[in-house]
Every structure is written in C-alpha cells, then in structure tokens.
Design a protein that fits this description.
single chain; 373 residues; alpha/beta; Rossmann fold; 4-stranded parallel β-sheet; 11 strands; 3-dehydroquinate synthase; nucleotide-binding; metal-binding; zinc; metal ion binding
C-alpha cells in the first residue's frame, strides 16, 4: 500500500533542530542537544547521591551508549536492565527492580533516568514514584510513541495480567528529554506505532495538523522534528487543563477504549500476533470514528477520510466473528468507565472531541463489520 511504503521511506533519518522547551505541570519538556545541557545542570543543582538508568534490553543496547558520553556528572551511575516488551510491564518486574535498587544502595536522594519506550517510561515512572515513597525521575524516551505520548503527562503504571495500565499513579518527572536521533535505530513498525498517536492528536485537537498527514507523499519529513514538537505540544496543552483526567484529558482516550481491548485480547490469545500499541489504537480510532458517524458527530465524508488514511498506513487487523464478544467483554475494564457504564471519547468533527459518550454492543458490532468491509 502506498501509505505504508511511504512511511517506511520517510522515517529513515531525522535531523535534530533547536526546538523551544515546552513548560508542563511542574516540569518541562526539552529538545535536542540543549536538553543534555539542562539535564546536567539539573543533576548538579540537585546534588543527587546516585543515578540509576532504567532501560530494557533494546534501549540499553542501542540508546544508553549515546546517552552516557553526554552526561557530565561525577556521581555513581548504575545501569539497571530488564527484558523488553509489554510482558515485562508487571508488578513482578517492579518487585525485582525495587529489590535491586535496594541492594545497590539507592536512597531518597537517588535519581532514576528512564531510557526507553513506553513500557520503560510507564514502568520506570511507577517504580520511582513508589520506591521509598517516591524519588526523582526523568524520562528520556527513545521511541516515537514514548516521545509523543507515554512520557508526557505524568501517568505511570503497569498492567494487571492482560489488562492495560490497571495499576498506577499520576506523578510528574523532573523533566522530559526529547532527542529524535534515538529514532534512527527504531524499526519502521515502531515508527508507525508512534505515528498513530500523532494522528490522534490531530483528530481530537487540531484539524490543520491532521491535514498535514492526508497526503504522505507531500509531507516534508526533513522537518519531522517540528511535527513531533507539535504533537507533544497538543498532548501537553490538554493535560495542563486536566492533570488528573476528570474532564478534557479523557479526549486523549479517543481510539483507546476499543483499542486497549483489542490490544489486550491479542496479547492473551495464543493464536493472535501480539500488537504494537499504535497498531491497536489505529484500529480503535477507525472503530470509534464509525461510532462518531453513527451518532452524527462526524459526517460520512469525514469518516471515510479517517478510515482511508488509517487503513492506508496501518492496514487492517484480521478479526474473526468469534473475536468480537471477547473484545467487547474486555471493555468493562476500561479506566474511563463510571458506575458500570462504558465511556467513549468520540470525535465531534475532525479536530474536536466529546467525552463521556456511550454505545450499545450492537453498534460496536456494526463498527467491526464496517471496519472489515
């Protein structure tokens, strides 16, 4: 498909540019080489006793070697590695990390640097937030998904079995450091996974930003850093208004109610291929855009455009009829649910959102039928 071929070609090299820092709730998001200067200045000013770099096997191999020469510190640094993948995002992994931190002498003046993708930032933030009732941590995301989504907003947590992000806290890092040079070693499917969240930010908040991706042939990816910066800015603007997700922050869950259920189902089903987060969310956005159309919140033309763009880039997942009921059953575990009612964040036209929207199961089944058509 043209869209997916184009994405593969475009995301090969990114050029780091000097980007303005983005102020967030009690911290800031810094970009490029300047971020390392600010990181070193922060470490010197806080007089930390020790630094622990939390990384999975992939980021420890490909990303930590880039980070270490840029750290101008004279205090001990320990690298703590754990297995890559969503299956590591558990309380059991946390127990192992808490134990190892204790054995290595971590104290309340230690600093944790979470270097990796969304699993690392989610898990590492939770480990730091709960160790000795909370120690400082900094996110250094190394995947596109983690840069534009997981590292921003203060959500930290782990999965409960196959249920996504059921255990966690909201606690902000000291800073987030965005270095898009890490993306040079990222597989193309991981780049597409992050692109899903960027597309979501346009759909829920900025119609003009969404429009930049309508013709991938015309996108100037030499300025890719600017697209990343704007995606982060959009998420941060929403989070700043509603840090604890009682109102507008629910907009960020567009595509995630069904997307998380799909992701969990594929994770627990032995005959299914485990999905990347963005792959599941892309399907969830198509399905929830259909719900928006059926509720007359988006026009048929807008829905057709959304479906075409997302399926052109991501293709379609293969759903059997027997998959639908187990996926629908998983919706009851979604974190947005209140008083037993399943809550959706649906589009109110492209660039706007309506939260706390309901849908009956029959309409959800119709969404899957249309997705497959």
């Amino acid at each position: 498909m043209v869209g997916r071929q184009k994405i593969n070609a475009l995301f090969c090299v990114t050029k780091v540019k000097r980007m303005q820092s983005i102020p967030a709730n009690g911290y800031a998001i810094h970009f490029g080489d300047t971020a390392y200067d600010l990181l070193n200045a922060h470490i010197a000013a806080q007089h930390y006793s020790s630094i622990f770099i939390l990384a999975d096997t992939q980021s420890n191999e490909y990303c930590v070697p880039r980070l270490l020469p840029l750290m101008a510190v004279d205090i001990p640094i320990e690298i703590v590695e754990f297995e890559s993948g969503e299956s590591a995002k558990t309380i059991d992994t946390c127990v192992q990390l808490w134990t190892l931190l204790t054995e290595l002498g971590a104290d309340r003046k230690s600093l944790i640097l979470n270097v990796g993708g969304g699993v690392v930032t989610d898990l590492g933030g939770f480990v730091a937030s709960t160790f000795k009732r909370g120690i400082d941590f900094i996110h250094i995301p190394t995947t596109l998904l983690a840069m534009v989504d997981a590292s921003v907003g203060g959500k930290n947590g782990v999965d409960l079995g196959h249920l996504k992000n059921q255990i966690g806290v909201i606690r902000t890092p000291q800073m987030v450091l965005i270095d898009t040079q890490f993306l040079e070693t990222l597989p193309q499917n991981e780049m597409r996974s992050g692109l899903a969240e960027m597309l979501k930010h346009g759909l829920i908040f900025d119609k003009d930003y969404w429009a930049q991706f309508l013709d991938l042939q015309a996108v100037d990816f030499a300025d890719f850093d600017a697209l990343v910066w704007r995606s982060i800015e959009i998420k941060n603007q929403i989070v700043m208004q509603d840090p604890t997700e009682n109102g507008i922050r629910k907009a960020l869950n567009f595509g995630h109610t069904l997307g998380h259920a799909i992701e969990s189902y594929f994770l627990e089903s032995p005959d299914k291929t485990t999905l990347l987060h963005g792959e599941a969310i892309a399907a969830g956005m198509v399905l929830e855009a259909f719900l928006s159309r059926e509720k007359n919140l988006v026009t048929p033309q807008e829905y057709a455009q959304i479906k075409y763009v997302l399926t052109d880039i991501f293709g379609k997942l293969d759903f059997a009829e027997t998959d639908l009921e187990p996926i629908i059953a998983l919706l009851v575990h979604d974190k947005k649910n209140e008083y037993g009612h399943i809550q959706f964040a649906l589009l109110d036209g492209i660039g706007k959102i309506k939260t706390n929207q309901s849908s009956d199961n029959e309409l959800i089944r119709l969404a899957f039928a249309d997705y497959k058509s």
